[in-house]
Write a structure and sequence with these properties.
With about 140 residues, the chain is mostly helical. The chain has seven helices and four strands. It is about 60% helix and about 5% strand.
């Protein structure tokens, strides 16, 4: 089951590893929904039956030797671009870059990297950073 990101990223839903956000419509809402959908697709789309282990296309594509992990950087760069476009700040961008770099470097290690991809979930981490930054922007903006 998949929840929308229009809300408070402070809490993660353990069932599907997506932030649970309170309903809120503004200029950021469509960006949050797109980012959440992409993060869920790449990090939590599927589950291992009988377990609480969730994985997405990042883990599957990462199995392709040599280029798999490099290919999965592309959607992550899109999340980064959205953050830059939303002017979420240098700190958020740098944290996201670090998550992408860690995911890519460790993901390149055969077998261990594939297991790491399933556990680390860099796209969901970055979606949470974006949601938290937007929440902060919402509270900092004058009404």
């Amino acid at each position: 089951m998949h929840k929308c990101l229009r809300c408070d990223a402070a809490q993660m839903n353990s069932e599907n590893d997506t932030p649970e956000l309170d309903p809120y419509e503004d200029e950021y809402s469509s960006h949050l929904r797109r980012i959440e959908k992409l993060a869920h697709l790449f990090d939590a789309q599927f589950s291992v039956p009988g377990t609480q282990i969730r994985f997405g296309w990042d883990g599957i594509i990462g199995l392709v030797p040599g280029i798999g992990d490099t290919l999965t950087v592309l959607p992550q760069l899109y999340l980064l671009f959205e953050s830059w476009r939303l002017k979420l700040g240098t700190t958020v961008i740098l944290k996201m870059l670090l998550n992408i770099l860690i995911d890519w470097l460790i993901g390149m290690i055969p077998v261990l990297g594939d297991l790491f991809d399933v556990a680390f979930k860099s796209n969901l981490r970055n979606a949470k950073l974006v949601a938290e930054a937007i929440r902060k922007k919402r509270t900092d903006e004058p009404s």
